[in-house]
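Per-residue structure
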Amino acid sequence: MRTAPNGLERLLKLDGAYNVRDIGGYETMAGEMVQRGRLFRADGLHQLSLRDQELILKLGVRTIIDLRFSDETAAKKDVFADHQGVNYYNISLVNPATTKLRDIRNLGDMYKILLDTSGPLIAEVFSRIAETEDGLLFHCSAGKDRTGVIAALLLDLAGVSRETIVSDYAETETNLAPIIDEMVKDHPAEMSLEEYRAFMGSAPENMEIMLDHLYSVYGGAEQYLTTNGLCADEIETIRHKLLQA
């Protein structure tokens, strides 16, 4: 679903990235609307053209959170990493596509591990979101796994339906289709090409597995975040940012 209920495009048409999206435009189960122009999710930003960068800045983005590891950021440097007009933070979350755990059956299992092992880091991401007054963009390499988990937690915190959260996650596969063959060339040595290609998709059941785990173990996004150190004021600030016009 590329178009928000109000008819406005959420997917940014850029030269150097394919999965940059506004997470706003969704209706909540309480009938409110997730606000546009405040929080954006994205894939890698290392190939953005000057036009792309200007467009993102014109949208009001002044904070970038890069969820990748140091080797990823070194090999494919975020164009905003040294930008004078942007606050850039690198908060490294686990990369599911490079895991060496052979008992992982699917990406859903990896998302469960990410929730269970990276709670303080995820809470740090949300603290940055709470303290930011201008637009904020968070991203990883494909804008699917690490970014997808953060986006799902934000939308759950806003009160968006499970169906919509799953749909938002699954959209990545469509957005990245034009470059998937190029992306699989970077597959890690410890994984076969076939294994890696399976990890490059965004089948809806992966997010279903993560949401089942989020609720059965933690009780939802708010409880998960408070368990990992986010205070009530920060959560209300984020919810206000998400929902209030």
About this structure: Residues 1-8 have pLDDT under 50 and may be disordered. The CA atoms of residues 84 and 195 lie 40 Å apart. The beta strands are 21-22, 39-42, 61-66, 87-90, 135-139. The longest helix spans residues 162-176.
